[in-house]
Amino acid sequence: MTARLLDGTATAGAIKSELKVRVDALRAKGVTPGLATVLVGNDPGSEWYVGGKHKDCAEVGIASIRRELPNSATQAEVEAVIDELNANPAVTGFIVQLPLPEHVDTDAILERINPSKDADGLHPINLGRLVNSASGPVTWPLPCTPQGVVELVERHGIAWDGLNVVVIGRGITVGRPIGSLLTRKEINATVTLTHTGTRNLADHLKSADLIVAAAGSTSIVTAANVKPGVIVLDVGVSRVTNSDGTTRIAGDVDDDVRAVAAWVSPNPGGVGPMTRALLLQNVVEIAERAL
User: Fold this and answer.
1) pTM of the predicted model over 0.85
2) Which of 23, 46, 94, 236 sits at 20 to 30 Å (Cα–Cα) from 250?
3) Residue 190 and residue 123 share a domain
């Protein structure tokens, strides 16, 4: 068996094309959605990622606003930027790029964001709404990466209903919220949450119809611990050192899984582009709901 690829780049492109139509419709009603980003410090990875978000905005017609602070910015200085964006009518939604410098209280910063402008869908109030809602319409921003996983699978013709899903990872961006999303009645999957401290992890993985690997642990998923025909989404990010001393980004899924699985999302090119596309979708939906 050779796994088919869940192409996040092409799927995200299709979503952005759809969003452009929706943005044009909003503009015709006098509304221009705006996404703001807050970047503290000069981490190269964060700078690249934020730059990509602004490029995406330009593609679909969303206005983009940048707020950049030095690594030395104080808690009060970062909070002042959050307050300004909360009050700025040109900002439909915004995100604070993580990680923040160690001297800044990340939880306090994220909680200071107005939940109605939470483009990442990770504010405690919005996550609480997700946990509290097992069915019915969604009227708040959803976390981008979990929703990107859902869309990537569905847009390749795969139904979630009844799937036995094993998630590896307990982080706030994927592991913790994705179970609440996948077990909503409209999606109807069964979810087991595991992590790097789970005993007999391989036994859990071998029972899975679909695996979401988001542990940040290189090659934690291999061909030896999955069953034939499984669907595997690689959401993990680790930095590994090559034999020549250089470093590279690696995912959680070993290449040998492709010989066993039915579907695999590449990394990069899988869930990453979907996360960026769903960030834009959140901004557009916030603007649509405001009308």
Assistant:
1) yes
2) 94
3) no
